[in-house]
Amino acid sequence: MRTPLLAGNWKMHKTVAEAVELVEALLQSIEQGYSTDREVVICPPFTALYPLAPLLAESVIALGAQNMYPADQGAFTGEISPLMLKEVGCRYVILGHSERRQLFGESDTLINRKVRAAVGHGLTPILCVGETKPQRDAGQAETVTLAQLRAGLEGLSAEQLRGVVVAYEPVWAIGTGDTATPADAQAMHAAIRAALAEGWGATVAEAVRVLYGGSVKPDNIDALMAQPDIDGALVGGASLVADQFVRIVNFEALSA
Ligand code: 13P
Questions:
Q1: Does the domain made of 5-249 have the CATH classification 3.30.160.20?
Q2: How far is ligand 1, taken at its centre, from the CA of residue 115, in Å?
Q3: Where exactly are the structural domains of the chain?
Q4: Is 169 a catalytic residue?
Q5: Which residue's CA is minimally distant from atom 5 of ligand 1?
Q6: Fewer Cβ within 10 Å of end Cβ, the chain: N or C?
């Protein structure tokens, strides 16, 4: 059984004061009626991690970062290490987000180094993969997505893969309101799981959580979560609005 994971990627939003306000609102609502059948993580900007950690310490909400450099320390101006993330209480780290790939030129090779460093330090990577609109239109969605998946996870043992979360985020669905249909998302999630099974064995593939990301909102979360291979969501815009994120966390498992 895979425990559903609902993750908020705040991107470059929220000052510390605003972050504290949002977390206080989340804590008030999420703890009511919340049970242990799902996990919740928020990934605020680096500056908010340290001040938020004590607020979240006794809560059901885990803390994650949005990026990381794959070295413990050194002359890497502007970067943050896995040790630093662990020190401030992070359990998760988003890696290989399409914005990092597109705007900051991150390669599959660099992302793979990050994934391995995260796993090596006991952080759970949320590895993002997904195709662009031209790639989908050219019929390459699966090839591109699975190539990013295999490259990002290269060198991990089956045991290490158990500690990884994958997020399928079609680039054309991010911030556009144009979400993949539950059926299209399910098809890609099934292909991802099949690729994991081929590379690392069926048992581990069944244990890895594959999240969907891209315009996840209160009005589409239930249908997405009803799909057998969708194990949670990586939420951008809607994770910045307390009511919306709470509704997403409280998704109802419809039967597919
Ligand atoms: P939106 O939910 O705003 O489309 O963003 C998705 C995303 O990029 C999450 O990482």
A1: no
A2: 20
A3: 5-249
A4: yes
A5: 236
A6: N
Identify the DSSP state of 234: E
Q: Tell me the pLDDT tens digit for each residue of 192-234.
A: 999 999 999 999 999 999 999 999 999 999 999 999 999 999 9
pLDDT digits (tens, 9 = 90+) for 25-54: 999 988 655 566 899 999 999 999 999 999
Query: Can you spell out the DSSP letters for 187-226?
Result: HHHHHHHHHHHHHH-HHHHHHSEEEEESS--TTTHHHHHT
Tell which one of 13, 67, 98, 174 to mutate to probe ligand 1, the residue whose CB is within 8 A of the most ligand atoms.
174
Q: Exactly one of 97, 106, 131, 189 is catalytic; name it.
A: 97
| Active site (annotated) includes residue 189 | no
Q: Given 39, 99, 106, 169, which residue is catalytic?
A: 169
pLDDT tens for residues 59-78?
Answer: 999 999 999 999 999 999 99
Residue 227: CB partners within 8 Å, gap ≥ 6?
182, 183, 185, 186, 189, 256
Pocket of ligand 1 (CB under 6 A): 9, 97, 169, 174-175, 213-216, 234-238
